[in-house]
Design goal:
This protein has 280 residues and is of the alpha/beta class. The chain has a single domain, classed as TIM Barrel (Alpha-Beta Barrel), CATH 3.20.20.140. The protein has a 7-stranded mixed beta sheet with strand order 1-2-3-4-5-6-7, with helices on both faces. The longest helix has 26 residues. It is globular, with a radius of gyration of 18 Å. Bound molecules: adenosine monophosphate, fe (iii) ion (2 copies) and zinc ion.
Length: 280
């Protein structure tokens, strides 16, 4: 069994429609794929229909933008009730804040570059969780940068004068919200030094106390030493170990199935989730 528990569609910052993420996952020979768009479950229904067509099992999930102090961290939630009021309210708040934040970044960029909010909207479909990748795509379309990666190391970097933050819940509260909604919380890429700081073991302990189920140990942002350290943390805390691609279509080099999750960890996640895994 090949199991990939972290992918993005055009419902957030992936470039494939939700149906196409699932179709590509089947084509890549995966048996199980999770759709985990940033702060939204918008792609779930389309992905479910596609999973039926393509004969692949689907885990419905989400990747919640969170913070630990001033550090940005991502929490994966699997198989939760998508109508849970408190979680829905928190995700709505983040998505609304992301729109205001993206507009603010564009206003700053527009002082120095030929870029408008319409240019960014042209890079999204209705309901998308708007993020820096969409601003990057607009910058590419305008010929201002070569690709998303070039935008992220320059104009859209956290250290850039054009950067603006958005609202995000505290990561310990997000663990509680996911559990209360019947979901299974797994800390995404804990070793990724995206914001110049890695989440501390102390915060991970507080997340464990709040109901954290696992750590995404196998991810391209972790080198061998980080994987070893994170696997030891997981073992010491009784956490599941997952692995995944964090596929974003053409938006990132990540290839479906480049990291995978064990059958044992997948079955444990399924047994803890309120929703069923959709099987063909
Ligand atoms: P945001 O959540 O709006 O601050 O944007 C962060 C998102 O940008 C992450 O979810 C990544 O998927 C994406 N991202 C970060 N770095 C890069 C990069 N170098 N190339 C493409 N996408 C990136
Ligand atoms: Fe992303
Ligand atoms: Fe992430
Ligand atoms: Zn992701």
């Amino acid at each position: 069994m090949r199991i990939d528990l972290h992918t993005h569609s055009a419902a957030s910052d992936g470039t494939d429609a939700p149906a196409d993420v699932v179709a590509e996952a089947a084509r890549a020979g995966l048996d199980v794929v999770a759709l985990t768009d940033h702060d939204t479950t918008l792609g779930w229904d389309e992905a479910a229909v596609s999973a039926g067509h393509h004969g692949i099992a689907l885990v419905r999930g989400v990747e919640i933008s969170c913070r630990a102090g001033g550090t940005s961290v991502h929490l994966l939630g699997y198989l939760h009730d998508p109508a849970d009021q408190e979680l829905v309210a928190e995700l709505d708040r983040t998505r609304r804040s992301r729109v205001g934040r993206a507009r603010a970044i564009v206003e700053r960029l527009a002082l120095d570059y030929d870029l408008t909010w319409d240019d960014v909207q042209a890079q999204t479909v209705t309901g998308t969780t708007v993020g820096r990748p969409h601003i990057a795509d607009a910058l590419v379309a305008k010929g201002i940068v070569a690709d998303r990666s070039a935008a992220f190391v320059s104009l859209l970097a956290v250290s850039s004068p054009y950067y603006v933050h958005h609202h995000a819940p505290d990561v310990v509260r997000a663990v509680e919200l996911v559990r209360a909604a019947g979901g299974v919380p797994v800390l995404a890429h804990p070793g990724a030094i995206e914001r110049g700081q890695v989440i501390s073991d102390q915060v991970i302990r507080r997340m464990v106390d709040a109901g954290l189920a696992g750590l995404e140990v196998h991810h391209r942002d972790h080198d061998a030493a980080q994987r070893e350290r994170l696997a030891a943390v997981a073992a010491a805390s009784g956490l599941l170990v997952t692995g995944s691609s964090d596929y974003h279509g053409a938006g990132k080099p990540n290839v479906l199935g480049e990291n995978v999750t064990s059958v044992e960890a997948f079955e444990a996640i399924e047994s803890q989730g309120r929703l069923a895994v959709l099987r063909p």
